[in-house]
Amino acid sequence: MALQQLSQTADLLSEASRAKIDMWLKKYPAEQQRSAVIPALHIVQEQNQGWLTTELLDAVADYLALPKIAVYEVANFYSMFELSPVGRHKICVCSSISCMLCDNESIMQHLEKRLGIKMDETTQDGKFTLKRVECLAACRNAPVLQIGHQYHENLTPEKIDAILDGLE
Amino acid sequence: MVKIEIDGKQVEAEPGSMIIEVADREGVHIPRFCYHRKLSIAANCRMCIVEVEKMGKPVPACATPVTDGMCVFTKSEKARASQKAVMEFLLINHPLDCPICDQGGECELQDVSLGFGQDISRFAEGKRAVKDKNLGPLVATDMTRCIHCTRCVRFGQEIAGVPELGLIGRGENTEIGMYIEHSMASELSGNIIDLCPVGALTSKPFRFAARAWELRAHASIAAHDCVGSNIYLHTRCSEIMRAVPNDNEAINETWISDRDRYSYQGFASDERVTRPLLRKEGKWQDADWQTAFQVTVDSLKKVIAEHGADQVGVILSPNATLEEHYLLQKLARALDCHNIDHRLRETDFSDQASLSQYPSLGMPITKLEKQDMIFLLGANIQHEQPLLGHRVRKASLQGANVTALSVMQHAYNFSLNSQQVVHPTAFVNALAAITKAAYQHANVQVPAHIAAVLETIDVDVTAQQIAEQLKDADKASIILGNTALYHPQAAYVRTLAHALAQQTGASVGTVSDGANSAGACLAGSLPHRGPAGITQNNTGLDTQAMFAAGLKAYVLFNVEPELDCANPGVASEAVAKADFVVAMNPYNAGILAQYGNVILPIVPVSETSGTFINIEGIWQHFAAATVAQGQARPGWKVLRVLGNLLEIEGFNYVSSQEVCDEIREIINTQNFTSADNEHMLVRLETASSETLWRITQWPIYRVDNVVRRAPALQAAASSGGPAAVHFNRHLADKLQLTDGDTAIVKQGDEQIRLKVAVNNAIPNHCALVPGGFSETANLLDSFAELTIVRS
Known about the structure:
CATH architecture of the largest domain in chain A: 3-Layer(aba) Sandwich
Strand order of the largest sheet of chain A: 2-1-3-4
Number of strands of chain A: 4
Largest interface: A-B, 13 and 17 residues
Number of helices of chain A: 8
Strand content of chain B: 15-25%
Mean pLDDT of chain B: 95
CATH topology of the largest domain in chain A: Glutaredoxin
Largest sheet of chain B: 7 strands, mixed
Radius of gyration of chain B: 28 Å
Strand order of the largest sheet of chain B: 14-13-24-23-22-15-16
Number of domains of chain A: 2
Radius of gyration of chain A: 18 Å
Shape of chain B: globular
Number of strands of chain B: 33
Oligomer: heterodimer
Number of helices of chain B: 24
Mean pLDDT of chain A: 90
């Protein structure tokens, strides 16, 4: 049965995605292939404009020969996996203790005002999503935010304007 | 062994075992929610926290292995304080809704909180609420009550083998759910109700129907498969309210199948007959027992006087009790009628004289999980006997090689080493190839009785591999399932399987129909053998021959011919044309309601005492859980009176136990000449595997008259309904049919219209038409040619 489903869902994953997942699969012992689920979800999320559809989750489950629910659990647990559409640029603002002490509140307020949306919302044009996240592990340079793979540290409202202006 | 001390008591324990296991064995109670002896250890509820000397912090008893000299305190001040603190946290989000909770009164959380909870909650903040999930018609949810013990999640992964539930979300937002809602597909899903320590998962059909303390538990035996799971039937007043498992490690461990759990609904069906019925001028009329008995006796005597006793056919359900089988065959044989059978769906009886005394697994049920190799021969074991399927799964998880040969792909919940799916006409040849390979491999002369068949067979690589694996395995078992038994060349299948087993050192298990095929055989419910399997001087007709011959009279016991038998079209016609048909049935429906002459209302298993003999040969007695409804009476009593009225000697039993004792006496004193399973096989003319053939399965919830009347099971995801004709995409394209279309399905002169279900589990040139549905009751043989055309 698994084989049948595989043929139906595997083509949802792009060839490039499958190649990348295969690379990760090699890094884990043969009997622990399920460990590749987190990298696989990252890869597939990137393939699909930053978010994961249920069909894609199923495709990952089939590709890794995992029960669907095992992939749903992981995708629901980690906040870096998006299960609904997000903007082209996902702005993750740290809300943990160090950033809080360094006034991340004003950072968030500035972002909300500038983009005209609240935290955890997406702009009408689909360009930006604001997201409140837990500690980004860059406390020494708080307040911090993350866009894509890029960290931006020691934030001020002026610095944020410059960052946003620089984005497509 | 290590020595440890629990609460000052010196005990010995297996090194590596957990504190809680040792405490349980020693009768020291430690509270727990997530720990369950049949599931993996999660240690996430923390309720079983205990104090261990020289360990700084209290530790969870379920996840702390014992070590030599360990001193455990389960009731010390520190342990108690920790347990109470955990309890307080567990109750933070738990609603205080016990008065409206179905679990109230039988709730582990309620019980433990009585001992470890506080009177007053210190938690003044808002409690969280969780949306309920729809898990289908069997399990009701109240997810706000969930304490995230994850027993249900682990059950799905580890026992059911169908991981459907999971922990979705994180932290305070964690919920148990499926993410994408669907009906649970596992045939063991109901067990999560028993596992759930709170009222989050409860029985949907039982919801709000009764309180635990209003119920009386009656030990009984599940009556739908040859495992004979031990159950309790819970009654309130005289009504059966639900069924729950009764632990028996040797048979069902602590589980029961959904079929055994929810079939009780069938006992209360509207179609129950509660007074004798006589047909007068074409219409059913109520009658008293005396009249009904008199009409039955007179009519049978008349048929026998006019046409002879061989014009009477006696057919019993394999679900009838040992006592019922024995009494009816005794009655029939006393009338010189030898047409007695209980094998409703089998069609090839040519080897019956060489078969063993009764169908058996060939080993204790508990040994099945210890096999190194299990060869499933036409067995959809998970659906046929869910708890044997569970044992096979356990074997598979422990590394056993499970190999299948079948006529369609079955969705097993264990992984197969290899699976061969063949056209039904190629089934015997595929087995013959393996058998031949085994003899070739050992370089041994093929025994004479199978030589003719093997002569023309070509051995392929797959056959060689399977033969070698069977030979190499220390403990190998060949399991004959429904397809093997119902196959039109079942004699070949059985004989070859035994020959293969003999050569490879494997054992053979025959998993039979119904709850009591073994009992039926031992009671003498066979045309060629009497009680204890003693060969009779006169051999009567088998079920198929009885119907095909169109006898003058039929005595049907707990059988619905058009739903239970292999050739429903022929069976229905025989019933319709007979001069006299008496049905001893709990229900009045279908073809018998249409053409029967007398209905003697007997009770289902819940209302009678009796004995079932399971696949292991274990005799399991049970008492009635409740009183007989209306004027319906236990089958053995009806048969006893019938025996008296027919003036047959030796029918003065006062209890079913007395009947059972008589059977035991016969079995103990008579010698069964051992079976050789060496039926002489002639060369097989193989039909083309390019012609379209019907394959038939009785879906899990269509196997007998009781389960067919359980609405919750009929609505379940794995019910196999509604009736449809299943074939693969290839054939669908050829016929230009697709899912949901209507097709005309023809067998001989019979034709029916059925919905199409495209199903790639079916091999080429085959169509699955399920049995047990009134929609398919006009068709003929289970495995035979058929034609399908667009409607």
